[in-house]
Amino acid sequence: MQNHSLPEKDIQEGKSLHAQAEAFRLQESLLNAAGLGIITTTPDGVISTFNPAAENLLGYSASEVVGKATPLIFHDPDEVVRRADETSKSSGKNIEPAFAVLIINAASQKVADRNEWTFVRKNGSRFPASLSVIALRDDQDNITGFAGIIDSKSNLEEATLQLQEQNRKLDEFAHIISHNLRAPVSNIQALINLLDEKSEITDYKLIFDKLKNVAKNLSETMNELMDTLKAKTQPDVDRTEIRFKELLDKVVQSLEGELIVAQASVTFDFNEASAIHYSKPYLESIFQNLLTNAIKYRSPNRKPLIHFRSSMVDNHLELKVTDNGQGIDMERFGDKVFGLHKTFHEHQEARGVGLFLIKTQIEALGGKIAITSEVDKGTTFTIRFN
Fold first, then answer.
1. pLDDT at 203
2. CA 170/CA 173 separation, integer angstroms
3. Which has the higher per-residue pLDDT, 94 or 16?
4. Which strand (E) or helix (H) includes residue 26?
């Protein structure tokens, strides 16, 4: 009697293909989470499943295509005709430019077939992507359908860029926290250092009142920073109406101890433009960095004078911050002023982060910052807001 049983090799291959199909089904949720479009079809090509990632990539809802269309609607017709012609020549078979061109290799191979295709979204836009097709089989090795995985390179690149941008924002936020909290803490120390064994009760009362202001402002800053951190996963920076004088008053109070020690005077003129719609944590960081820089790099030959002035120039709001400090040699350092970790004075607390940070913040919201400076005369920073 003739033995009709399958050879052991074919049995093992059948089991392998079945296991492969089962593994695909088990991993479907993971692939969807990774942004990979998954489409399954019946043996003759009618779409049977269409995952959320495929909906996002192609612009169709599952209800529009499941049981109603074949994957050909997502492909460039000219490309399908060209591939059918190429496949016909290479295989010696007459392949019609239809669903068969998408699955012919997967139907005959024991592994997934992968090719680059041009996909067409519902709105007519196009994008290149890799399509991996696998034949789904039952225990008897009969094809029960096909599964395709769309790996959009542009989609993955976009996700990578978004991740890089989020990392940049979080790194920037860490610097904001460092700068916005370091100044009040230093100010508390400066206020405490104003007291000694010769201080009178009135001195203690005065310093205590100032410490209360610092503590209040520090608490507000912490709350604002935490609110900003919660929103950091969103692409847009929250903006609110900010009055320049109110924010400057808060920053001055937070730095009052250092201002007293330096005998610094802070003046302002916000008559021409009194408010702005902007990110409050960003603007507070900008004010604080420019003011602490003016104190830190003050001239030893005169008391520090720092002036804030807002104005409208060519329909843009501008803010100028001017000091009479040590100044910067612009011929030597002009192209490095806003560089990360670039310092231009011998100061033990110089870290070269503040100016880099505020430039990043200003440009992130569409603005620009410029500097003019002269050694031993002072510096002016000009911020043009968007």
1. 84
2. 5
3. 94
4. helix 8-33
DSSP state of 72: G
- Coarse DSSP helix, strand, coil percentages of the chain, rounded to the nearest 5 percent: 50, 20, 30
The Cα–Cα gap between 277 and 232 comes to: 19
Q: What are the φ/ψ torsions at residue 121 (nearest 5 degrees)?
A: -75, 170
Q: How far apart are CA 219 and CA 213, in angstroms?
A: 10
Q: What is the gyration radius of the CA atoms in the chain, in angstroms?
A: 33
Q: Using a cut of 0.85, tell me whether the model's pTM lies above it.
A: no
Task: Kindly give the residue spans of alpha helices, DSSP state H, lying in 92-200.
Answer: 100-108, 153-193
The H or E element containing residue 266 is strand 265-269
d(Cα 201, Cα 340) in Å, to the nearest integer? 45
Rounded to the nearest 5°, which phi and psi values hold at 53? -65, -35
Nearest-angstrom CA–CA distance, 291 and 285: 10
- 153: tokens are 């390179």
CA-wise closest residue to 242 among 205, 274, 200, 201: 274
Q: What is the mean pLDDT of the chain?
A: 79
Among 362, 23, 265, which Cα is nearest to 371's?
Answer: 362
pLDDT in tens, 214-237: 777 676 666 655 655 544 444 456
Q: Which amino acid is at 72?
A: L
Q: Could you give the CA distance from residue 355 to residue 252 in angstroms, rounded to a whole number?
A: 19
Instruction: Return the amino acid letter for 242.
Output: I
